[in-house]
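Hi, here's the filled form for the chain we discussed.

Project: internal
Contact: R.S.
Residues: 255
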Amino acid sequence: MRQRWPARLWVVRHGQSAGNVARDAAYAAGHARIDLAVRDVDVPLSPLGETQAQALGRWFAAFPENEKPEIILSSPYVRARQTAKAICEAGGIIGEARPPIVDERLREREFGVFDLLTGAGIREKYPDLAAQRALLGKFYHRAPGGESWADVILRLRSALDTISLHHADRRVVIVCHQVVVLCIRYILEEMDEAQVLAIDKQGDVVNCGILEYDFEPDGDDRLCAPKLVRYNFAAPLVEEQAPVTSEPDAMVAAR
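And the returned structure, exactly as it came back:
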């Protein structure tokens, strides 16, 4: 039996969020806490993020009909759903505008007690946990009430299995978050801890940047191997003259 995968997969980080802006302000001022009055799940796009999402939607909309995405899935976080909705409203999905499929397994990494703290705030409030994280590394360290990268990978394996089951041979877009983008690369390219952290160290994932895979059958036409087409592709924004941003998420210290 042939292995089931989408025909094409695009993984997109959401547009710039109000949390990205607040995070930058907190670090610039040397504050211990990021000034946000809402839950991370409720943080919306910034005005610039809305512009980026609309530009990305128009880029997808310009595809020929036989190459355009057919299915769009989204993290339940507001900034991701707004980005996915903008793609749909721009005509970036085949057929009439339809709501994105929301899957909680695509959500942002949960930060637990580190939520809304800058690096300085973590070291000040939780020095023992900061030392533990420095020893274990962010791939395996789990703050109380939060997730490690390995935890995120566990739920993403399940999400990718569902996508393969329900959307095999379809063209699929996933709208999610920075760590989720990197963890999907880890899974599909069969990386190890050092490899994925080296990619992370090279720079942040671009807001509305594209990770794209093709799935090609191997010699016996039964197994499909993911083929990386491009990563951190920002041309849709450049073409639309929308500013390119790559700010870490609000909780960059705990990524």
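Let me know if anything looks off before we file it.
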